[in-house]
Amino acid sequence: MKDIFFDLSVRSVRLNFLRSLLASIGIVIGVVAISSMGMLGTNMQLMVKDQLTTGINIITVTPDVVRAEPGSSVSSSNGITDIQLRDIRDAAGVNDVIPIDRTNTQFSIGSSDGRGSIYGLDPEDIRTIMNVSEGTTIRGESDAIVGATIASRFDVKIGTRIKIGEPNISVTRPVVRVAGILTASGLSSSNGINTDNAIIVSDTWYSAQFGEGNVYDQVNVYLKEISTLTDVENAIDKKVNRNKEVVRISDSSSRITSVSSTLSSLTTFILAIGSISLLVAATSIFNVMMMSVSERVQEIGILLSIGTETGEVRRMFLYEAFILGIIGAGIGGIMSVIIGYSVVSAMIGNTTYFFLPESIVYIPAGMIIGMIVCIVSGLYPAWKASNMDPIDALRAE
Amino acid sequence: MNGTPLIRLADVSKVYHLESGDFTALRHISLEISEGEFVALMGPSGSGKSTMMNQLGILDVPTTGIIHIAGKNVASMTNLERTHMRRDVIGYVFQKFYLIPLLSAYENVEYPLILKYKKRDTSGRAASVLKSVGFDEEMSTHRPNQLSGGQQQRVAIARALVNDPKIILCDEPTGNLDRKTGFQIMDILADLHKKGKTVILVTHDPKIAEYAHRTIQLEDGRVVES
Asked: Which of the residues A1, A2, A4, A394 would you substitute to probe the B interface, choosing the one with the greatest number of B C-beta atoms within 10 Å?
């Protein structure tokens, strides 16, 4: 760089090194705050989105709410019939279609009672969509597998017997034997069924006990290709809801959209908090620049009187702001990597997403914003310096 | 010395508007200075010497009246044109030297060349001008605060000369120097005059004014002797 005005700015920064450094620390903090907060938010978003998308390829078909016509009675078996199931299978094409029976009832394990969902599924289907962490899947007629939450809360082991149904003195409650325990699924289950708090039994055992025959509470369609979601939903709708709405077709994509938008406004919010620190930094840069101008009034007077153009004086002070920005943004960028990584690993506990472009982009973005803040803060002081009257400036001591 | 004078003031007045009322620093001054003259501007303090220097140095414009410098009307120039006139036509030598503190002696002399040509000097002009005013080459990397008053004034004269201006304006150039050094500086200025420069000098000191060939006496904003 052979521009003498840049040289002058560098020398001025060097001459007031401590003061310049302190002003830059404001920018460092601002850049670090913006980058770390942005990365924190983005990492959180990425992680939650990833967790949510595990169950996104599932279409859930449930019977629509039936509104009774005056005078007629509501059918007691309110579910998806075999005929409707066949239609769904037709519409779903190559995708897996799994009918599910479900009820909510009481059960007893040893001397303790609990309440939870009982699911009845074809043992073949259970093998397709569920993962057993311990034991085996259902093989015998009265085998059951239980969710992770029930298993840990009731201390269920393989072979534990569970009495199913409301306690009734006159009737002996049916008993199932635990053959396996499912892996915990958490918030988002990959199979569209919240199995943590459920007992899963075979469909034949279920119909024998709860006697709903060939009517299902829910039918899940597992898509092989997520992009076909809308097509398959439309096909099912066209085929099953031919005359009137008999089934409700839903998926979790709307849930993801809403959670994502919540998280993204949260990110914006924490970014806004981070920006406050840049505002403070802007003030301190402005202050230092004003000090630099007022300390060098006489020098500015000399420069102007011997024929320096106002634009050149302005440039000199903008360079100075730029240098402060470079120092601040440079240190800030390096510290952002370190601090951002620490914050993400401490608060999210997962740094898989840290180096993804969506996350790491906050570092250059923070640096650029820091530089812009510096230059903008330097605009007025530079303008003030260049518009001085050389005679007055020379006279200043 | 051709027909038109280098500097021509016609009925120039300068009024400062102060809170305490208007203050007239220059009253209806008309005078001419030709190319190659060595003029001393004298007068008691408050007589308008500094105001006069600011007018001659194109740092200010008159309230009324017209100033022509090197054939141009100062009042009708744009700010940028005035800036370029200061850079190219006039060389300034101040009482307090007014070197740029962040630049070395050499860079101070090189600076006007950079202003004019927008690039570093590769012609060796800065160094040769510095040598011509008797400045020790070994000290050219020193900052102004590492130099004595006499050395600083030599650097300041070199800076004033480096763009080969027509006019050298000196505002009490020996005011901050001891007697002996002051005369050395005056010898340099006299030498410049011999080489054809127009030298205008403000001073209190009659001994210094003796170097000039013409004395303009100011009193209360008026020229009393020219």
From this structure: A4
CA dihedral A153, A159, A165, A167 (to 10 degrees): -80
CA distance A44 to B5: 80
β-strands A96-109, A218-222 pairing = antiparallel
Give me the domain span that covers residue B172.
35-62+77-225
The letter for the amino acid at A27 is I
Residue A312 to residue B99, Cβ atoms within 8 A: no
Token pair, residue B137, equals 């080459």
What total of structural domains would you count in chain B? 1
Tokens for A381, please give them.
């002081």
Q: Give the ipTM of the model, two decimals please.
A: 0.93
Which runs of consecutive H residues, i.e. helices, occur in B89-178?
105-117, 125-132, 149-161
**pLDDT, tens digit, 9 for 90 and up, residues A13-43:** 888 888 888 888 988 999 999 999 889 988 9
- Contacts of residue B87 in chain A, CB cutoff 8 Å? 306-308
Residue B14 lies in a domain: no
Segment A245-300, tens digit of pLDDT: 788 888 877 777 788 788 888 888 888 888 888 888 888 889 888 988 998 999 99
Inter-chain contacts counted by CB atoms under 8 A, chains A and B: 61
